[in-house]
Specification:
The complex is a heterodimer of chains A (about 325) and B (about 400). With about 325 residues, chain A is an alpha+beta fold. In chain A, about 30% of the residues lie in helices and about 15% in strands. In chain B, helix 3 packs across helix 9 and helix 9 packs antiparallel against helix 14. The chains are: A alpha+beta (about 325), B mainly alpha (about 400).
Chain lengths: ~325, ~400
Amino acid sequence: MDDKEKKSLQESKDETNLPSPDLARRHFLKKLGLAGATGVAAGSGVSYAATQASGSSFMDAMGDFFQDHYTRMDDEEMQDALDRIKRKAKRKFGVDISCEDIKPMPDTYFGYALNLSKCRGYRECVAGCVKENNQGRDSQVQYIRVLEMNEGDHNLEHSNHYFDQDFVPTEGKWYLPVQCQQCDNAPCVKACPVEATWKDDDGIVVIDYSWCIGCRMCMAACPYWARHFNWTEPQIPVEELNPVTNYIGNRPRPKGVVEKCHFCTQRTRKGRQPACMEACPTGARVFGNLLDPNSEIRYILENKTVYRLKEELGTEPKFWYFTDEARART
Amino acid sequence: MTFFGFIKEGLKAGFSGGILFWVWMLFLLFLIAVTGWNYTAQITEGMVITGMSDQVSWGFYIANFAFFVGIAAAAVLLVVPAYIFHRKDVKAVVLIGEGLAVAAVVVAMGFVAVDIGRIDRAWHVIPFLGKFNFPSSMLAWDIVVLNGYLFLNLLIPMYILWNHYNGREPDIRKYFALVVLAMFWAISIHTVTAFLFSSNISRPFWHTAILAPRFIASAFVAGPALMIIVLQVLRKFTDYPIKQSIIDMLALIMAISMQISLYFVGAELFTDFYNETEHAASMHYLFLGLDGFDNLKIWIWSAVVLNVTALILLMFHKTRKNMFTLNIACVLGFIGIWIEKGMGLVVTGFIPTPLGEIFEYSPTLKELGVSVGIYAMGCLVFTILAKAAIAIEMGQTGVYKKSQAVENVL
């Protein structure tokens, strides 16, 4: 018996001597599960029916049903959850994926800037994002939406969302990619009834896909149309599946939950660029740590004329737009 | 006279009746089966079977939810006259109104349940077990107030009926505080539901202070409309005494509420169209169409015609007093408010999207299939509660039944 198993056994013996409310809650949940077998069977029956089409075994469905909120899971529970995700991916896609729980890096607060002088509307960012983050192809879930705007016009209503990227850039147009702005004052975080979405320590607004109940209140609340719902089971061609995944990031998601851009936590929390920045051929995208005074993002914020979308709403986005035109100085 | 006996006899009364009653019940059960069939498809295939999209992410289900919370809130229009103004005629039907409120809350909750993407995770809203984002989330508030209202509207009538079952009058001092609480709570359920929409800074069409007042005003049209129809049905199928003065009162409330409701609509139209800003795009889409898209235009203008016609019939003494024209006004008003508040409000808020895209919505057949049984569940709940309450009130159960049996022997 290894240390982890010893610890677990000790804990189950110590049930009357619980040190924290979280532990109490978890043990209570477990007891509830054992005691309320019929009610459970009904719930997991629904869960099973819902997951049947997506390759989950009954035991895993039970585990999914009882899974606690991300912020309350201990290491053992998280490992169980990760293992379930890996097994599900194997059943569904026949692919062995890795799934970690990557925490935010210390002293990090991410920001993103986009150079409108350089964006040509190629939509390479969209394609790169979809591949990196295992989004549903048939259902066309796309975290980034590139708008074709008219020169001299900032009115989003005059934009074209469905321009053909094979013919860009078009004369008299400019291009505005929009994705989750990771707002400091996010309306979606406030709106969620179960706290399935929250602002993490590195500034990224994350979603626990295993906790979301799919009420879509957050989608109504978001002023940037950044959040997307899995109206059906995400269809990912097996050969395009990205097997390197993160729990609070690009791991394969189930239907019935909301998802959005998370600044590629599986990459950025390991010091890499997000997929959209890497994919962009023009160098329009600049991602970095706002707390690092020597970062490129800080340079842009201090030296370029930056603005944010819908600034008047008070959402405090962490996504800035700028141009290469010289800054006006008195 | 045990509590168990009370429940048993109540249910027995609720489930007994002639051939017409059973045809009605079977019809309702059929509709519920239709819902079961279509909802199973929704669970297995996903909500893609509905007409909703990322652009219009709430549709028919939430439209009905908002509408029926309003119906539930309108029960207060019987409670206040009965308990504050001591109208004896209204007191006789307060229980019916509260039964209607229970049925309406059940329907509202039913529509929320079918709109949830992962209903198996519904336990996540339970405090302590789950993670309840109260008081930040308006949806969390709605869960609290709707369940509270359901509880109040079951507790108070049950207390009254329990006493009547035992042949005694309930002590008003014991539950008057709860009745007053229920009055304020009725307003709160519909205010919170309005805040669900008006709290969203992302949706200029909803983000207006007048939304909650509009909800209340329109609920006080649709609620009485339904109550007037239902009371006549009860008059026809039961011997329960329902005074005409009750209907007169409800019709008058309806007339005034319709005036206020249309006044609010007028105020909204002026605000958006006098100096039209980008924020008026949704209103423009709704009433005039936008960029060639105008699916909702016919709906909203029909609602206007229905509501104005209903108002004219209600405004004039002769047509308000005449049951035939009053019934027409009720039907027109009910449908008109449903269109304006349900589809006209919920769907329009999403068009255009925050990024300026116009993507239209209409419910699919399967979506409607999921919905019919929820309406039926409301009818079922109300039928049973009304029959049980009427049986107890008319002394056909409990103490009175026993004494009747004794009399028969003698």
